[in-house]
Recover the amino acids of this structure.
């Protein structure tokens, strides 16, 4: 091998070796660059994912907060509606009770007026009969029996007046009672007692008139008609 050929062979080998070295160098550099870029990309992707998750978490929290606020408002409005409804029911109940109380007072007042009117009629009749008996006694006629019957009538009339006088207190007791049905029985009993006394007074007056007629004071038919007219209620 001559010197020129040897030199060419040496140069060719050196060039080949240099080429191989450069190829290896660039490959490593490229790999490092790619690796670095990949690392930076992963880091950026991780940061973006974290931000997205944070935004979603915040949005969920905001939604929960708004939901709680809406629920609280609904609860408040529902409670206000219940309170208003309860107040309305209470007002209606009070109005109904007041109206019922007024009707009750009016009804009892009407009954009392009728009973008092009956008392007044019986008293007028008693006074007329007593006047007649006094006149008969002045004539020497025995009026012992009719006067006794008249006394019975006046006693029953007085009893009726006394019982009727208890009505206002009984009415208020009914209206103020927690058990009005039970308390009303007392009112009913008072009315019944007054009626019973008036009936006894009426019966005694009829008997007194009949006895007066027997003593020669009045006609029986006239007495009966007068008594019925005076005690009709």
């Amino acid at each position: 091998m001559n010197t020129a050929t040897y030199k060419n062979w040496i140069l060719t080998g050196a060039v080949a070796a240099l080429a191989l070295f450069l190829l290896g160098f660039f490959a490593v550099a490229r790999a490092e660059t790619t690796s670095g870029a990949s690392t930076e990309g992963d880091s950026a992707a991780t940061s973006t994912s974290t931000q997205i998750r944070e935004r979603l978490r915040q949005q969920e929290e905001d939604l929960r907060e708004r939901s709680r606020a809406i629920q609280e408002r609904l609860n408040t409005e529902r409670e206000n509606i219940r309170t208003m409804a309860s107040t309305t029911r209470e007002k209606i109940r009070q109005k109904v009770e007041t109206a019922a109380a007024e009707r009750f007072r009016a009804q009892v007042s009407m009954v009392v007026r009728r009973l008092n009117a009956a008392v007044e009629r019986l008293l007028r009749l008693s006074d007329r009969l007593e006047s007649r008996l006094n006149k008969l006694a002045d004539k020497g006629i025995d009026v012992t029996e009719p006067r006794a019957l008249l006394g019975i009538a006046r006693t029953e009339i007085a009893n009726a007046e006394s019982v009727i006088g208890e009505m206002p207190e009984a009415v208020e007791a009914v209206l103020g009672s927690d058990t009005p049905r039970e308390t009303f029985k007392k009112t009913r009993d008072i009315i019944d007692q007054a009626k019973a006394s008036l009936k006894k007074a009426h019966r005694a007056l009829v008997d007194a008139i009949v006895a007066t007629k027997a003593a020669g004071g009045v006609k029986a038919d006239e007495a009966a008609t007068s008594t019925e007219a005076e005690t009709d209620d």
